[in-house]
Amino acid sequence: MMRQYDLVERVKRYNPGTDEALLNRAYVYAMKAHGNQKRASGDPYFAHPLEVAAILTDLKLDDATIVAAVLHDTIEDTEATREEIDRIFGAEIGQLVDGLTKIKKLDLVSKKAAQAENLRKLLIAISSDVRVLLVKLADRLHNMRTLHYVPPSKRARISEETLDIYAPLAGRMGMQEVRDELEDLSFRHLMPDAHQMVKAKLSELGEKNKGLIEKIEQELVAKLQAQGLKADVKGRQKTAYSVWKKMERKSIGFEQLSDIFGFRVLVNTIPECYRVLGAVHVVWPMVPGRFKDYISTPKQNDYRSLHTTVIGPGRQRVELQIRTWEMHQIDEFGIAAHAIYKDGLEFRPEGGAAESNAYQWLRKTIDALSEGDSPEEFLEHTKLELFHDQVFCFTPKGALIALPRGATPIDFAYALHSAIGNEAVGCRVNGRSAPLLSELQNGDQVEIIRAPGQTPPAAWETAVVTGKARADIRRATRAAVKAQYTGLGRQILERAFARAGKPCSDAKLKAALPRLARSSVDDVLSAVGRGEMVSSDVVKAVYPDFREEQNAGPGSDGKGGWFELKQGENLKFKVPDRRDPEASIPIRGLQGDLPVSFAPNGGAVPGDRIVGILNPGEGITIYPIQSAGLSVFDDQPERWLDVRWDIDEARKSRFPAQITVSVINEPGALADIAKVIGDSDGNIDNIVMTSKSNDFREMMIDLEVWDLKHLSAVIAELKAKPIVSSVTRVNG
Question: What is the pTM of this model?
Answer without folding.
Answer: 0.51
